[in-house]
Design brief:
- The chain contains no helices and 20 strands.
- A six-stranded antiparallel beta barrel has the order 8-9-12-13-11-10.
Length: 268
Amino acid sequence: MIRFWPILVGASLITLAVAQVRAQSLNFGTGDAPIEIDADNGIEWQQDSLVFVARGNARAVRGDVRVLADELRAYYRKSSNGATDIWRLDAIGSVRIKSAEGTAFGDKALYDVDNSVLTITGENLKLVSGEDWLTARDQLEFWETKQMAVARGNAAAMRENKKLNANVLAAYFRKDKKGETGIYRVDAFEDVKITTDKDQATSERGVYNVESGIATLSGSVKIRRGDNVLNGCSAEVNLNTGVSKLHSCPSGISRAEGRFQPVKKKSK
């Protein structure tokens, strides 16, 4: 349940309070800290539409989470006991969402409070968390209860010289021994491609373990290093050591195979 604290409408500050308690992340729907909203051009209260609109370098802050945008819209509904529930928060224009878990960028963001799902769209979509980068062409999502980010459309996950591409990527977060949050696993679907300084591997599906550096690939696997090519049904590619293990199909219909190009000798 969300209830209003004292509101200064026409000025540039609104403070809201929430009665749920959970861990903070990129989302606003958890925790018991108040939400503070301010904007250069003030805040408009549209009572008939049940929405607050903050314009001009607008900012919403709750705990260690900050949403920055050209415009913020907070939609609310009136409950049976007279309290006011915020069920949706929109950020429009030059969106940046910052927290201890990372920073997300886009043109527009929509936060579904009921389902704790953040959706970001627009140009140059990206989520930066420590050493990890997650980008997408169509849409970025953050699912609070699953601690999962989903990148859709020409998606890419990057760390140092390693890059994982696919049509859809699902990245899972957790805290390490130092208490820092980062991506520990990435699931890849459709047109999967892994690129390092030396190798390129493609498949239909992949699961990348960030801690071990091992990518498990399945479906029409092809591994290429220079002119050498390996083909199989599945493979394990260690991005840290550069060692790849290719497997035949379980049915025995197709075996793992390779084509190796010998080094051409220089003519005297």
